[in-house]
Design brief:
The chain has one domain: Aldolase class I (TIM Barrel, Alpha-Beta Barrel), CATH 3.20.20. The protein is of the alpha/beta class. The protein starts with a strand and ends with a helix. 32% of the residues lie in helices and 21% in strands. The protein is built from 7 helices and 10 strands. It has an 8-stranded parallel beta sheet with strand order 7-6-5-4-3-2-1-8. Helix 1 packs parallel to helix 7.
Amino acid sequence: MHVKICGLSTPESVAAAVGAGASYLGFVFFPKSPRNVTLEQARGLALDVPVGVAKVALVVNADDTALEALLETVPVDMLQLHGSETPERVAEIKARFGLPVMKAVGVADADDLPALDTYAAVADQLLLDAKAPKGYDLPGGNGLSFDWRLIAGREIAAPWVLAGGLTPDNVAEAIRLTGARQVDVSSGVERAPGVKDLDRIAAFVRAAKGAE
């Protein structure tokens, strides 16, 4: 079971995620998010991450100039595209920057499922997140979940990560219903928007790994 803790912004939360056994650490580069970090902040955090734990940069509809600046400053292992990037744009970013790409796909109902096949053809991994309702500023990290039964037993042609509304209390059930081998959490381990709770990080990883 691989766990991704996203939206980290302090040395303490990074250390807690690493210590708990997270496989991926996510850093958010999106000014509207309460979890947004600057390039310099992220560089300092990333340099403390031990080898073997993947550092993921979450971006939203970033252009090449922004991506170049990010990758020149912050040592990351993967790009997470969390906006409305087309399959063509995903393939272009992967080819241009030479890093694995995780594409977030918003799910609200069965009509959203064909996009999983489309993006699986171009991305290294998919992140299945609850689709943000109209009027929401953030494409993710809203603490919302989708109906996990939509993907139960579904064959997805790329490694995938379950996200959206997961908490230490419901992650085991989510894994049981979906068969997920990877899970992602952000707001579900916070005590306020953007403020990670170190005990909840440990509890989340424990619950996810215990569900195997």
